[in-house]
Every structure is written in C-alpha cells, then in structure tokens.
Write a structure and sequence with these properties.
It is built from one helix and 17 strands. The protein is mainly beta. It has one domain (about 1-280): Porin, CATH 2.40.160. Strands 1-2-3-4-7-8-9-10-11-12-13-14-17 form a 13-stranded mixed beta barrel. It has a two-stranded antiparallel ribbon with strand order 5-6. The longest helix has 6 residues, at about 20-25.
Amino acid sequence: MFGWALQARAQIATAEPNRDEERKLGWSNAADFGFVRTSGNSSTSTLTFDDKLTRAWSNAELSFRGGALRTGTEDDPFAIGTPDDFQIIEDDSRELDVELYYLSGRYDRDITERWFWVAGAGWDRDSNAGIENRTVVYVGVGNTWRDDDHLRFKTDYAITFTRRIDEIEDPERDENLSEVRLSWEYMHQFVENTRFDSDFIFFVYGSDASDNRFNTINAVTTNVTSVLALRFSLQLLYQNFPTLEEIDLFDLDPSNGGIQIGSAVVPRKKLDTVVKFSLVLIL
C-alpha cells in the first residue's frame, strides 16, 4: 500500500508594493488543493479544494468562498465459481463515500469604527450528514474588536432564512425555517512563523432553542520556509437534531445467522469530526 498527499495554497493580491496594505486593501485570493490516494489492499482517493476571494476597501469587505471534499472507495473484489475452482473479479469502479460541496458570499460595511452591518448567503451539500441541499440567507450586525497584523477578532449576529432538504424526509422538521446566526472570526499571529485561526458559526432555530447546530474550524499553521508550511486543523460539525438514515434490519444478530427482513430509519450521529495535518505550499 502507498499513499501520498499534497495541499497547495496560492495567494494573489492587487495593491501597492507595501505588503501590509496588500493584506488590507484590494483583491486577494487564497486557494487550497489537496489529494490523497492509496492503493494495494485498500484503494481510496480523497480530493479537497477550498478557495476564498476577497475584495477589501477602507470601510467594507466583500468575500466569496467555495470548496469541495470527495472521498471514493473502490468496490471490493469478488469471486465466481466453486470453493476449489474460482475466478477473482476486480471492479475498478468507485463509490462516493463522502461528498461535500459549499459556496458562500458575504458583504461587510462599517457603520462606525467598531460596528458594521453584514449580509450574506450560502449553499452546501453534505452526504455524510444526510443533507441534500441547504441554503441560508442572512442579514445582521457585528463588532470589530481588533484588526491588525497580529490579532483579528470579529463577531456578528444575524437573522437567517434557511431552507434544508434532507436525503430522507423528516416529518417532524420543516424545510423552511428562520434561525439566529452567531459567529466569530479570530486570528492570532503568535510569532513570526506561527499563526492560529478560529472560525465559529452557531445557528439556533428561532422558536426552539434545542434545535441548534454549529460549525467550527481551528487551525495552527507554522511556516517552514518562505514557500512551505505545516498546518494542523480540527473541524467540528454538530447538529443537535441530526438528519435520518436508513439501516439494514435483521431478525437476529447477523453473526448468529440472522436474516435481513427490511430496513429501519434512525437518527444519524450528532457530531462529525475532521482532523487534518498537511503540508502547505505557498505560491
């Protein structure tokens, strides 16, 4: 078995030569590409992509983000014949185990030095969580607590219109609902070569506080050279009321000779965890 992985980041900015100004004003783009492939006794492939395009003015910011995660596993081989005389059949086709896509955009504009208003929209599809399509449109206000080269901390508070279509319809949930959206964006440049980033988004259903969910990504990036860095990240996706999934139903334990008699619909797990340790190429 062998495996290999690569993640690349490209940053482009259109501004004056001053690097501090490039980070604050004008267009900038950051793109991450990742691919993992294993073969041998286990044959899998994982493709990841994330891109963030930002346009910053002195009193406003417009940003777009999109990405995808696809994991496929090759079907297991099988044999045709008798126990003493058989032929092994290997199927090269792949089945998607995880399929995640997302697109979003938002616009922030300052009201005062500390306050701003924000409007945004997003769409995502997450087969692992059982979500076929989810669209969110939101508007609200926020606070800029600090924003410089070493520390950035912003919070915002918004009202959303959310439409969610699950792979298996839940009769106890509405497809259309209003939510309260609370989020923060935090960056801390500990030393010249090490940076910590934390993004957190929390949603709660307007008429039922127990119906809540959150998505948070926390990452530490350490520059090794001017073009290479190591990045460790932890992402948590939580839904207090998860979607439904269909599982096989047996009359007895299959290991004791049970026979499948149908299927059962059960809630999925509430928490999904994604851990990444990657080599980042900065261009």
